[in-house]
Each structure stands twice: as structure tokens, then as C-alpha cells.
Amino acid sequence: MNRNMGIEAGRGYTAGLVKPASAASEQRGQEFKAKAQHEGAVKAFLKALDQDPANCDAAITCIPYILGSHEDPLPLLTSTLTAAKARLEQLHGPNFFKSEEEGGCAGRFWGILDTRPYMRLQSSVAEMARVGGDAALACAANLECLRLCPGDNMGQRAKTVPLLLAAGRATDALQFCLNWLLDSDNDYCHPPLGGGDFSPRPNPVDPTLSAPHAAPLLAAIHKEHSAEPLYDLALSAFTCHGNCELARLSLSRASSLNPIVLRKILLQKAPPKDYNRLPYSLNGRETAQDYLVLSQTLWSAPAALAFASADPEARAGTLKECSACGVKEGEFGGHKRQLTRIIAQAAYCTVECQTSDWPNHKPTCKKEKDFIKMVQSITWA
Question: If you placed Cys at 255, which of 59, 206, 314, 327 could pair as Cys (CB 3.0 to 4.6 Å)?
Fold first, then answer.
């Protein structure tokens, strides 16, 4: 939801929601920022907020400067969010944030351009709360994004299960996974409230997957083409029901789609510090990085780690072996032995092994890298 692209850019930065003087100050702040004149940028952005407390994009742009001064950005963001909500209700009516049944527009925000600065700010509140360790606030903000925009146009779905688990809401986390697996049809429809409807489902969860009503869930697990929702399902099911068939099957399917995630977990690698900034490939390193930013700490808990390590088939398909000498990760020193030189689909334990195997790997190396670049370019576009 980049305001500098698409229809929103054509209508200008503010889409008529921000007072002109505030919009002008924010624009000056953007110019200072582009020149790396940080002091001038901060003053301009704060002036924009003084002139109009509902200027969402000015508040968002202030975040890195506030963090740089070791202050908490949440008070500024939440006060701006309150002002922006009041502005939207003033423009569109007092019921604007209510459901369609109550005469509001919740669930249709993606099609209303005026809401986009507000939604960007709501998403920023969720992320800053997550970074600050306030899982409850992060959950509330994230679920509100999905309630208002249930099609997940902003990518909040991927963050919800880790936040629910971190907040101690494992049952809701499992139901959120089931809501998306069973009540959505890829891009054509979405579950109620963007998956955030936690009222009891028609059939209770069967962690053994042996009941007749478990057949649709089994089919949905095998049909799912993205690994991350299945890793979420595995961890949620394990947290709620222990080492059950639902957790095991979800983990096995997830690791077959993207073994990078499970490999990092088993090797007990340090979690990535930030989200990926490069073009994405389906079930590639980029999606694995984003997932691990959110969930690796949860998987590192002793019980979860023991569960992830218990499936020999998943381990065998996840931990690599040297393409030259055949030594396997985990053979020495438990899971912490790692092959560090990974080139395309090959892995090596030393520079010597990589050099000796080059004649064998050379014919496929460039082809594999070109294919990855093609997929990334399509995703980026």
C-alpha cells in the first residue's frame, strides 16, 4: 500500500484528508529526508503533526527518527490513529468503522482510498507494538486491520498467528489457521473478519485427523502451496494438542514446501533482525526470512524445538549434506553443525569441497540462479 504508486499517487499525497498546511510541511520533510538532512526532516514532520494531528503519513515517517533517539513511537502513533479515525468518521459518518450489517464500511476499506493512510498507520502500530514486546496491542491492531480489510491486501495475515501465540492465545491462533484453510478460496474469497472470527466452528478440531469431518482439513493441508501458513498450523496445533497427527502432518508438508525454515530452526540459528527487502520467490529464502523474524523465537522454546526435531523424515529432507564429501549437518555436535557455503541447490562444508565439486556443479549453477531471478522479477513486478 505505497502512497507513491497507483491511484493514490494520482490523487496526491493526502487524498484531501490532511490540512493543506500540514501536507506542505510533510512534503518539506520528505525533501529533507531525501537529502539525508535528518534534523530538518524531523522538525518538518513534527510541524506537520502540530498543524494536523490526523496526518498519518507524517507520523509513520517519524518512526525511524523516534527510534533513533531511543524513544517509544507508540504514543505518537496511537494519538494520530485516534485523530485520523475521528477525521474519517467526520467525513463518512459516525458508523463508518462499523460492519455493513450496522450500516458501516468495515470489510470494504481496500476499495475506499481515503482509508489508506489510516490503514498504513494501523499496520505501523501493530509492528511497533510487536517490536516493543506488547503482543496484546500488536494482536489487537493486526486483527483490526483484517476486520477492516479482510482480503489481507496489507499482508497482516502472516503476522497474526505468531502474535496470537506470543500473547498466550494458542486456541485463537489455531482457529485463525483453520479459518483461512477451510473458509477461504485463495484470492477469490476470504474468511469472515479476515480470519479473526473466533466463535466456535461447526465441527471441533480433531487433532488425530481420524474423524470423518477432518477430511476437508486434510485436503486443505495438501492443497496449500505456501509453507508459512502450514508452519503456523503445526506450531499452533502442537501448542494446543501436543505432538498430534495434525501438528506432525502440517510440519511435514511445510518442510517439504520450504525446508529453509525448519533447517534454521533445527540448527538453532539466531533469528533474522529484519524483514526481507529484496524481490520474493515462492517458498524461497525471502519468505523464510520474514517467517523466522516473526516465529523463530517461538520455535526455539525447548518443547517446540524437541517436536520439530522428532520427525526423522522431516529432518532428513531439511538438513543438508555436502555435495562433495557427503558429510551431513547435525552429524557432529547435534543439530548445530552447519554447512555454510550454499550455492544454488548445492552445499559445501569447506572451500576445498566447493572447489573440487565445481566441474560437476557448473552446468546447473547458472541455470538455477537465472530461474530464481526470473521468479523474483515476476514477484517484484
Answer: 314
The dihedrals phi and psi of 45, each to the nearest 5 degrees, come to -65, -40
Distance (Å, whole) CA 291 – CA 272: 9
The Cα 324–Cα 168 span in angstroms is 45
**Whole-angstrom Cα distance, residue 145 to residue 157?**
9
Which H/E stretch holds residue 44?
helix 38-51
Beta strands in 212-336 (DSSP E): none
The helix/strand/coil state of 168 is: coil
Contacts of 162 (CB under 8 A, 6+ apart): 232, 294, 295, 298
Instruction: Write the pLDDT tens digit of every residue in 89-135.
Output: 999 999 999 999 999 999 999 889 889 999 999 999 999 999 999 99
Total residues found in the chain within this entry: 381
Give the other-Cβ count within 10 Å of 34's Cβ.
Answer: 9
pLDDT, tens digit, for every residue of 263-292? 889 888 889 999 988 887 788 889 999 999
C-alpha to C-alpha distance for 307 and 243, rounded to whole angstroms: 7
The predicted-structure confidence for 186-214, as pLDDT tens digits, reads as follows: 555 788 899 999 999 888 999 999 999 99
Q: At what angle do helices 302-309 and 245-257 cross, to 10 degrees?
A: 70
Residue type, 16: G
Q: Which long-range contacts (CB under 8 A, 24 or more apart) does 357-364 make?
A: 357/323, 357/324, 360/323, 361/323
Cross-strand bridge partners of residue 346: 343
Tell me how far the alpha carbon of residue 280 is from its chain's centroid: 13
Cβ-count burial 283-317 (b if 16+ within 10 Å, e if not)? bbbbbbbbbbbbbbebbeeeebeebbbebeebbee
The DSSP bridge partners found for residue 211 are: none
Burial class (CB in 10 A: 0-12, 13-18, 19+), 52: buried
